[in-house]
Amino acid sequence: MFSGGVVTGPLLIGIFILAIAVLLVLIIKFKLNAFVALLVTAFGTGVLVNMPLPDVAKTVTDGFGGTLGSIGMVTGLGVMLGKFMFESGGIESISNKILKAFGEKRSPIAVSLSGFITGIPVFGDVVYIMFAPMLRVLSKKTGISMVNFACAISVATTCTFALVLPTAPPLAVAGELGIEIGIFFFYALISAFVGMIFGGIVYGAFLNKQDHKRNHFYTFEDLEVEEAALNTADNRQKMGAGKALSILLVPIILILLGSFVPLAVGEDAAITPIVKFLGDKNFAMMAGVIYAALISRKYLRQSITDIMTEAADQVGLILLITGAGGAFGKILQATGIADYVAGSLSQFSIPILVLCFLIAQIIRCAQGSTTVALMTTAAIMSSTIATSGVSPILCAIAICAGGIGLSLPNDSGFWAISRFFKISVTDTIRGWTLGGFVAGIAILIFVSILSLFQGFLPGLMM
C-alpha cells in the first residue's frame, strides 16, 4: 500500500466522496463513457492523495490488467456461449417449455424462471427485447398486470446477472476476494433463486393485486403489430430446450466438480489435479463454447465463426468497463482509502454482511452500474473481509446482493425495462427498483442465516 503521502484520516473520506461525485457527474451530467470516466476518476484520486505520479500510473495499469487477467477470458467465452443459445433458438425453446408447463394463470412464475435461466448466458437487454412482445400479449390475454410481468422478468434476470457465473460482476468480485469460484457459484445460485422468489414472484404478485384493486392497466392499443410479428415469426427448426440447457450445464458441472471433488477426496488424491484442471473456469467455459458450437450448428442461420466474431465485438466494452473498475478499485486499495472507509463504517458495529450490502447498495444507487458498484465494494472491503471471521463466500454474495436493487434513472437498465415493456417511470420504479431491493434484502437475510452454520456447511470457511 502507498504510504509516502501526507493525506490521512478524514481527508481520505473527503477524497473518496469527491471521487464518487466526480464519477457520477462525468457519467450522468456529461454522458461520458463509463470506461473513460472510471479511468479519469482513478488517476485523479491517486493524484489527490499525493501518490507519486509513476506509482499512480503503475497502480492503474496493474489494477486494469489484474482484473482482465482474472475474468477476461471467461467473460468473452460466456458471451459466446450465450450467443449460440440465442441464435439457435434454444433460449426461446426454454421459455416456451416453461410457460407451457405452468399455464397462463401462473405465467408470472414461468416468466421468472425463464428469466432466471436465460439471464445466466444472455445479457439483460437481450432478454427484455426477446420477452417483451410475448409478455405484452400475455398481459392483454390473461389480465395479469404488465408491471407484474416486468417485475418477474427483470428481477430474475438481474439476480442471475449480479450473482451467477459466468457473468462479469460475480466473476469480478470472486477475483478481487480470491475465493473458490465453484463453491461461490453453488451458494450464489441458491441465493439468486431466493432473491427471484421474493423479489420477482412474491412481490410481483403483490403488485398484481395492487393494480387490480386500483384498476391500473395498460390498454395495449399498439399491440396488433406485435401480435402479428409473433404470429409470422420465423418457423425454422429451433434447438430443443433440453439441448439448450445442456449448453449451460457443461461448464457448470465441470466447475462444480473442480471445486467439490477435492473437498470429498482430499488434495492428495490422484484425481484431484485432473478435476481441478477440468474445473478451471477458463477451460470449463472453453469446453462449453466448443460443445455449444457443435450441437447448435444445424440450427444456425450464420456460420460459427460469424457468431463468435459478433460475440467478441459485444464483449469489448464490457471488458473495458470492468477493467477500469478494477483500476479504480486498485487505487482505492493502494492509497489506503478502502481500508479507512471500511474501518470508519466498522466503528458503528455494523455486521460485516450488512456492511458489504450497504456499501454496494449506496454505490449502486449513486452511479447506476452494478458491475462498477460490486468491483468498488469488493476493493473497499477485501482486507476487512479477510480478518472478519465471516466466510468470504457469504460476504461476496452480500456484496452482489447490494448491486441488485434500487436501480434509479441513472442506470441504463432502468430505461431499458421502461422502454421495452412500455411502462411508465412510476411503474418501472414499482416493478424494478423496489422489486430488486426486495430481492437484495431477501438474499442478505438468507446469507445471514447461512453464516450461523458456516462452520458446518461445506466450503464456506476455506
Describe the structure.
The chain has about 450 residues and is mainly α. The protein has one domain (about 10-450). It is built from 20 helices and no strands. The chain has helices at about 10-30, 35-50, 55-85, 90-100, 105-120, 125-140, 145-165, 170-175, 180-215, 225-230, 240-265, 270-280, 280-295, 305-335, 335-345, 350-365, 370-385, 390-400, 410-420, 425-450. α9 (about 180-215) packs parallel to α18 and α9 crosses α20. The longest helix has about 35 residues, at about 55-85. The two termini are about 25 Å apart. The mean pLDDT is about 85.
Helix content: over 70%
For the record, give the distance between the C-alpha atoms at the N and C termini, rounded to a whole number.
26 Å
Query: How much β-strand is present in the residues?
Result: under 5%
Our count of domains comes out at 1
The best one-word shape is globular
- Per DSSP, the total helix count is 20
Tell me the number of strands.
Answer: 0
- Largest beta sheet, briefly? none
Class from secondary-structure proportions = mainly alpha
Please tell me how large the radius of gyration is.
22 Å
* Mean pLDDT score: 84
Reading the helices and strands in chain order gives: HHHHHHHHHHHHHHHHHHHH
Low-confidence stretches: none
Quaternary form: single chain
Question: Brief overview, please?
Answer:
The chain contains 20 helices and no strands. The protein has 462 residues and is mainly α.
